[in-house]
Specification:
This protein has 361 residues and is an alpha/beta fold. The chain contains 12 helices and 12 strands. It has 2 domains: 117 residues, 2-Layer Sandwich (Enolase-like, domain 1); 234 residues, Alpha-Beta Barrel (TIM Barrel), CATH 3.20.20.120. The strands form 2 sheets. The chain has an 8-stranded parallel barrel with strand order 4-5-6-7-8-9-10-11, surrounded by 4 helices. Helix 8 links the parallel strand 7 and strand 8. Helix 1 packs across helix 3, helix 5 runs parallel beside helix 6 and helix 7 runs parallel beside helix 8. The chain is globular.
Length: 361
Amino acid sequence: MRITGFRTAIAQLPADEPLADGPTVKGTRDFVTLEIETDQPGLVGIGLTHFGGPVTPALRHTVDLLAQMLVGDDPLRIEAAGEKLRAAAGASMGPGGMFTLALAAIDIALWDIKGKAFGVPVSVLAGGCRERVPVYASGALMRHFSLDDCVRAAGRLVERGWRQMKTQLALPGPTTPTREIERLREIRAVIGPDIDLMCDINQRWDVRQAISIGRRIEDVGLFWLEDAVAHDDPHGMAEVARALATPLAAGEYVYGSVPFRHMLEARAVDVVMIDVLRAGGITGWLKIAGMAQAFNLPVVSHLLPEVHVHLIAAIPNGLTVEYMPWSCPLFREVPVQVDGVITVPTKPGLGLEFDPAVQQR
């Protein structure tokens, strides 16, 4: 089998919040989509990547340049493809940023081709540990939404079957620690004690703040506290982890596997969060997950739930899938949660098909 060609496009999706009918945010969410064609009739692999903002055309151009290098190659030799692209461009562009995001789209499409070629889902190719996985609602309880909006949304999520959900705190900002702590407690009061509640800080605190505020919210019973401090400070993370009883999650902001090694060796995280795009694709994601397993740590995903459902289901230490449905409108059909879990698609490959209407628009 050989790669014969490819197609890319930029898809601009509305910045809505469909999980709990939340406020619509201005602007769009922009994705680069990829289809890799082979010499086998009808066998096409799909991939995607995302950076956002005005650099999206540059990301598409990078995907085009890298994909062109693989025309004529065997799509089933995924490691060989990755090494070829790293040798050609990765050494000069570094392990992070544009190269890794572009590589991810190609790697995802090659895994889709491989699954279709062998007639099995990517989840089975990657390990096939489970057929159903827990999932949590993300994006409905954002820090820039009012407390009233978040309280209403939290109640709707419980009514719609979600058993796990994530919120955020707005510190630093035009608020106070007392007000933000009360925000958390009001959301907990609405959902009750049996719903898992996560909280994302998005690297907004220093170590002192993380320990001080983290201790004041321990009674809320968070499932995890996410990215409390800077992603490139594993020793600071470790200091916070030692000081708090609440589990710490981190990893979405780093590119490649080396930063995960630093976090794991420093004992800086309790829950390892991996972004398939910043990992360089499914190949890199699985290597990081294996590293986490060696440290007896669970793995969770970041964004792209329609891809990550395969990966969390594939591995024995997969904990839960982040369901932030930003990319879901790209596809005709995606897995949906029922009573807090989603079932892995049984179709070959990713089991996904781009929606032609979105592609044309």
